[in-house]
Design brief:
- Helices cover 29% and strands 25% of the residues.
- By secondary structure, it is of the alpha+beta class.
- The chain folds into 3 domains: 244 residues, 3-Layer(bba) Sandwich (FAD/NAD(P)-binding domain); 71 residues, Elongation Factor Tu (Ef-tu), domain 3, CATH 2.40.30; 66 residues, Helicase, Ruva Protein, domain 3, CATH 1.10.8.
- A 6-stranded antiparallel beta barrel has the order 12-15-14-13-16-17. Strands 6-2-1-10-19 form a 5-stranded parallel sheet, with helices on both faces.
- Helix 1 runs parallel beside helix 5, helix 1 packs parallel to helix 12 and helix 9 packs across helix 11.
- The protein is elongated.
Length: 407
């Protein structure tokens, strides 16, 4: 490899975008990936559908990145969500927009996203080498190449670290980039899971595992009763607790070893007064039935026995004998179903890693290290993280593009 070349470490979305962008500029590029194939984690994103980006505006992008979002202004200006859509269109992959502004490939296949990126690499004359990088080599404060774990040395004047985080280690995200950066003097802010399911101690949660709730509102409260996070959308009950998009986003604001209360509003579109009128209508409709058989229009079937047990109204009580106080108690429960949260699932189960190479040591206009000339960073290895909805892949594409344009 020529001494004026670029080595990109990591063949995920950030690394592929960085490598292709640098190659398109005419620079010799070698992409080093320790897996036998590129984009392993990309293939499982969005349940295999790959949520590429989000159609919100620039301020909306930043607002959905609780982890150092403002650091990304330059990256998003240089390569926006519209640029992501245009990029994939250029490489033969049309997209579509779904609820919440989420952008997916029209084919609903993450494999097509990977194929488009691989086509981009081929067109940009990027060479690909399989292997693990043991160290980034530096002389007189400037990058001069990398050393592979089996001892081979590769020469380059620019190195881009795009190794991802340390979530989903089976896909190759094992924190290699943090070790490489730390060895060069970079500060690694503490790592924690982000976008990760939550564990719950509330017994009935296990009874409804597999149940998905759509269009519900949640509120997460601290032990002291302070509201930590609110959201609206879809959630899922599991054998260990709760998951789903709004729960994953909530996890970004929670600490692993701390207990919280999750309060679910099952009917957020109705005020308490409107909900009471709805209950009166349903009870009139099912006046001759037992209470346990009168909630089918209001709730998913799996949740009915839970609500019946929690509200304390006898299951066999005739609906026309339910008192106003009992009905109001039911309304309060439907607007405030509580789950005790005991912690976060492990980092290995997180979609992304919070923490990483501190943004204070990276130039936001170029993604170049402020400590080592010719060293760049892209993607999840940087201390940035976002909510669900396409924002994390937008970060990968924008920082990858910026690093590939600057090296």
């Amino acid at each position: 490899m020529a001494t004026d070349g670029v080595i990109v470490i990591g063949g995920g979305p950030a690394g592929m975008m960085a490598a292709g962008t640098a190659g398109r500029r005419g620079r010799p590029v070698l992409l080093v990936e320790k897996n036998k194939r590129l984009g392993r984690k990309l293939l499982i994103t969005g349940k295999g559908r790959c949520n590429l980006t989000n159609m919100t505006d620039l301020e909306g992008l930043i607002a959905n990145i609780p982890g150092n979002g403002k650091f990304l202004y330059s990256a998003f200006h240089r390569f926006s969500n519209q640029d992501v859509i245009a990029f994939f269109q250029e490489w033969g992959l049309p997209t579509k927009v779904e609820r919440g502004g989420r952008v997916f490939p029209a084919s609903d296949r993450a494999s097509d996203v990977l194929a488009a990126l691989e086509k981009f690499l081929t067109h940009s004359r990027v060479q690909i080498k399989t292997g693990a990088v043991a160290a980034v080599l530096v002389e007189e404060g400037r990058v001069c190449g990398v050393k592979l774990d089996h001892g081979e040395t590769l020469v380059a004047d620019s190195v881009i670290i795009a190794t991802g985080g340390c979530s989903y280690p089976l896909t190759g995200s094992t924190g290699d980039g943090y070790r490489l950066a730390a060895a060069l003097g970079h500060t690694i802010t503490p790592l924690k899971p982000a976008l990760v399911p939550l564990e719950a101690a509330t017994p009935w949660v296990r009874e409804v595992q597999g149940l998905s709730l759509k269009n519900v509102a949640i509120k997460v409260l601290s032990k002291e009763g302070k509201t930590i996070y609110t959201d609206f959308g879809e959630m899922l009950f599991t054998h260990f607790g709760v998951s789903g998009p709004i729960v994953l986003s909530a996890s970004t604001h929670l600490e692993s070893a701390t207990h919280y209360r999750l309060v679910i509003d099952l009917k957020p579109a109705l005020t308490p007064e409107q909900l009471d009128l709805r209950l009166q209508r349903d009870f009139a409709k099912y006046a001759r039935k037992h209470f346990r058989n009168a909630l089918g229009d209001l709730l998913p079937r799996a949740l009915v026995p839970v609500i019946v047990a929690l509200v304390g109204i006898p299951p066999d009580k005739p609906v026309n004998q339910i008192t106003r106080a009992e009905r109001e108690r039911l309304g309060v429960l439907l607007k405030g179903l509580e789950v005790e949260i005991t912690g976060l699932r492990p980092l290995t189960e997180a979609i992304v890693t919070a923490g990483g190479v501190t943004v204070k040591e990276i130039n936001p206009a170029t993604m170049e290290s402020k400590l080592v000339k010719g060293l760049y960073f892209a993607g999840e290895v940087i201390d940035v993280n976002a909510y669900t909805g396409g924002f994390n892949l937008q970060i990968a594409f924008s920082t990858g593009y910026l690093a590939g344009s600057s090296c």
